[in-house]
Amino acid sequence: MKKLIVYDLDGTLAESKAPVDPDMATLLHDLLDVVKVAVISGGDWPQFEKQLLTHLPHDERLKGLSILPTSGTKFYGFAGTWKKLYSEDFTADERNKIINALKTAQAASGFTIQKVWGDVIEDRGSQITFSALGQQAPLEEKVKWDADFAKRKKMKAILDPLIPEFSVQMGGATSIDVTKHGIDKAYGIRKLRDQLAIPLKEMIYIGDALFAGGNDYPVEEAGVVSIPVRGPNETKPVTEAIIACLDPASSARAWKLA
Ligand SMILES: [Mg+2]
Question: What is the pTM of this model?
Answer without folding.
Answer: 0.84
